[in-house]
Amino acid sequence: MPRLPEVFTESEPNLRSIFSFLSSDLAIDLGTANTLVFADGRGIVVREPSIVAINKVTNKVEAVGAQAKEMLGRTPGNIVAIRPMKDGVIADFEITERMLDYFIKKALGRATLFRPKIVISVPSDITQVEKRAVKDSALQAGASEVFIIEQAMAAAIGSGLPITEPTGNMIVDIGGGTTDVAVISLAGIVYSRSVRVASNEMDEAVIQYVKKKYNLLIGERTAEQIKIEIGSAFPLDEPLAMEVKGRDLVEGIPKTLTLTDAEVREALAETVGIIVDAVRGALEKTPPELSADIMDKGIVLTGGGALLKNLDKRLREETGLPITIAEEPLASVALGTGAMLADVDLLRKISID
Predict the structure, then answer these.
(1) Which end of the chain is flanked by fewer CB atoms within 10 Å, N or C?
(2) Handedness of CA 242, 76, 86, 138 (dihedral sign)
(3) Domains of the chain, with CATH numbers?
């Protein structure tokens, strides 16, 4: 099991941080919702939304990341905010390349003598064409060498699971565009499945529910806020409610209504059900010896979707197994991908090039 690299601060005068000035290797969690970049010896240095704002007239990039997200739903006609990643893979090659170039330069923060070696994590069921698109984007953005590893494997390493041991480890990584379910043993993936349903589909489900039930149109940002604040996968101990503002589709004017946690749970039911089914399907296809290990150790949840209230309780109810949420669910994939920069032997073993 590779030791997770520490996150050093600039004030720590250690040999590793001195060498980090010469090293420029990066690990990238290229997600549908967010991109995280891990710099060798410095930890996570970039954590921004995977969004690019483009001027349609000049074809110029107006903003990337957090600045571009602020523009979502608020841009004038000539500026469009684009998510170049869809369901965990590249939907727009050129925009992804520009976004990667921006994040790589921001992560390095200085001129380097060497082009960086880059490790990128991708969903488990990525096709050869999609894999090539990811690799080419990184090479065009300035990488000297690109390694690709599966997000489920990276999430398991980043969550501290003993992936190199001969025991079964089950990880469920619920990202922005995909949910990866995997059973790992001896540094290999015994079973994996990726469903293209995750946090973004939850947001869309909330938008459609409010539209259908109340004739109220809300935006992506509002839907995400509703999911975070009162969304749940299993009944809560204390009921929650939230005021929601949107546009009345009948009268065409701004309107405010109050949503309850029960309504949001109803809106999310189908999406959560797909994720639960993927977990159950993985358990059914796991070899008996490894199933016994999982029964003892349980399942680890990671990714932003793991933070949905009571999702762990829902899965515990459905599977009868212990469910644990990773210590840093939003950063697990980036931390695991970053750990590979210091363990080249394991990187070559788990790379899916």
Answers:
(1) C
(2) negative
(3) 15-154+332-350 (3.30.420.40), 161-197+272-325 (3.30.420.40), 199-267 (3.90.640.10)
